[in-house]
Records
---
Amino acid sequence: MNNLTEKIVKKIEEEKITPKPKWRFLLKDYILWLVFGFNLLLGSVFFAVSLLYWSSADWDIYKYLDVSVLQVLKTMMPYVRLGALTFFIFLAYYNYRHTKHGYKSRTGLIIGMSLVIALMIGGTLFILGASHKLESVLAGRIPYYEGVEEHRIGVWSHPERGLLAGVVEKIQPDGRVVLKDFYGKKWLVQVDQAFWRGPVKHPSIDQKIKIIGKRISVDEFQAKEIRPWVGGRFGKPFQK
Amino acid sequence: MQDCANLSDNDLVQKALKDQAYFGCLVERYEAKLYNYISRITAVSKEDAEDILQDVFINVYKNLNDFDQTLKFSSWIYRITHNQVISRWRKHKNSPFVFKDEDNLKLFEKIVAKEDVEADLIRQDKSREVEQILKCLKKEYAEILVLKFLEDKSYKEISDILKKPMGTVATLINRAKKQFRDCANDFDI
């Protein structure tokens, strides 16, 4: 035994150094895998609510607005949700990278695979109808989280551009409808020449509707097309 | 002293977990190789290199249960040594990579020199110039060239030591060789 070997063995004996127990290393690895899976799941949730967002968007309204398709796409992009998806995919990558064999895979492959898994789980959650529940949980727990409903209100509250939405308060004998928009303003809406899209073909009290048309005075609106509040022309069907 | 000449590294790890005397065999087996490796990748005195080496072996002993049997033990112990040296760089702001003359020449022969060049001529004339070349290399390139050409590690072993994917290792080696040749041209060697 040479000097250094002797010195090291002696130090181990004198300082009573012992190998750390195996369970500590196993636990660390299990925790990394668990956090990796949890991040993927959170990423999936944000993709599932992004799908809900897109499916309930009215993709065809750009035709009625004086804006480009690109501007509509920008309006319809769920930035916060996609940002959260990206964030959790990055965290998942970080955790995977620190697992025992995580260094063997290329960054692109880890991120790509994580994204595919998150999209598949998110897609499945959406198809199974869990997106609504997840959306309401997220909206209830994350401060300043703009839900699908709030976003839709924002898109449809532009009477100057021909978009109006609200609740039917009263139907007048001449057929005109008194509509209270989502900011509390009352509008008198002419609906006699409007096309009713979706399952409902006439107005009723407390009905929530979206209207494409033209503002004719400060509180009067001419409807060209009326749609139920929930649903879009593409994706989720209109609901009564 | 235990008789361990015929035992593999993995057997020694298993035995050292039950009887620490066997750990001495692992220390003896790797002491010289790791000492050389440490001297190649950091500029420290003999005493400091021995201190680092001692810390490495204590760390190895503490983490024996973390040794993954699918790796080569040598890759694992080189990884721990590499990490120990890096943390020392950070702590003491050591300047890395002071190559010895024989290392300079070995690298030059393997990367730049043509086969028909007389090795003796290179030995006599080029050592100082090669030192200049090595100083112009990026740290991560010098690090990978040491493992590939001075420690004679395979791509798989380097991947396990540096914890980088094999493809990245291959890319880094190619870039390092290219930078080495570019620097050689700049110095007109």
---
Amino acid sequence: MENSLLQYSFILKGLLGAVFASITAGLAGTYIVSRKMVFLSGGISHASFGGIGLGFFAGINPIIGAAVFSIFSALGIEYLSVRQKIREDSAIGILWAFGMATGIIFIYLTPGYAPNLMSYLFGSILTVTTADIIALGIMSVILILYFGIFYRAILYISFDEDFARTYSPYVNVFKYLTTSLIALTIVLNIRMTGVVLVISLLTIPPNIAMLFTREYNKIVIWAIIAGFAGIITGYATSYFLGIPTGATIIFTLVILWIIVKTVIRFSSVRKINPGEKQ
Amino acid sequence: MPDWLVSMKSLSVAYNGKVVLSDINFTIRKNDFIGVIGPNGGGKTTLIKTILGIVHPFRGSIEFNEGIEASKLIGYLPQISTGDLNYPLTVKDVILSGLMIRKKLVSRMSETDRQKAEMVMSELGLSGLSSALLKDLSGGQQQRVFLGRAIIGDPGLLLLDEPGTFVDANFENDFYEKLRDLNRKMAILMVSHDIGTISAYIKSFACVNRTLHYHPSSEITNENLLAYGCPIQLVTHGDVPHTVLKIH
């Protein structure tokens, strides 16, 4: 009885986690893939490791440390590249490694054993807490409202920033705000797949969607569906085979991408062939 | 009611600490079609950015005629490089973005807006392409999409920055004819290198080379370019006598 209750809460947690992770990753992922910000986002996620280390060292929740680090590094990169004092890819490369280095030093300085360190690097569903799930749920609501209300403003700025400046004085506000929300989304999803793999959780689903759909809003919806399918399958597989969850999710998503790409290739070949014969 | 739309008085603009436009006195009138010529780096694009309010003068003033409601509504066709042609945005959505100037941040497009977009598209020969993406279109079609974005809001003034640089040779004449149609409804200010082609369409021209000289006639001659210190080569084609001007 007790055992089945535990199992029930475990499954519920996993299910809710999958729903919220796929919503946040789908919305943020479509934005970064369309704006070609994948490398930037990779930099943000790794830079946040510095905050995780600081969290361990200072005895506060590592995710809070990661959130602070990721937002500052995201805004720092945007600011530096806008001012053109430094090339954007160089700024990312520096912050990427700096964050990792800071994290390692802080963890080394922390007395005793750093619990769950591996779960922050590679993700683990076993260590995901109810608070993590609630935070991801709140983030889902914030992102849905933000993208829902400002949909056109956000898209048009991404599409043509210079033109947007001709009608709106808020272009920079939107850019910094969206980047901060992306940074927070990355950090909250670190609990699912870890620092090293989280960027794939954001980029693979929109890329699956873009194989068969082309409009922004449809890409978002299909990215969420593809992300959910990948996460759930990854969970189940990792549970039954006893292998790491984060890695299994990413592995599953890549397999899904290959399957969809193959199916589309074969079905489009079939569509073209009858026409050629005529 | 006075017929001016935009008026600049003793206007000076600096860019990265360098004075780009100096002591400009210039009035854009309703229904004018102004060709803006001048050397590279002479301040032509800065003039457009000043009218758009993206850069601000450090001296002097720029005023918009409050009496003409559309005078602050400005359509803008930038050089093609500003938009991301691979962005997953449909032709119709790109054209609708021209309405953002009238909208607040929270912008829903109404049915009327969508119909207006369809109208602009059929006017520009883009019917049937509403859900195409920019990357599927030819250069000339892309240019018409950006022109559609500039005119969907019925602006009082249309600003074009070097439209000739990405114009489709087959569509070039159509494009300038289209501008002539639009000029019945709005003033046009067009930056161009191709003085020969535009001289057949413009009503007046302005030479911008740190200062601005306005000439209220479309006749561009050696003499008036010389008088304005406008160091450009004048090459004309077709029926217009061929002239080459060299001043440095």
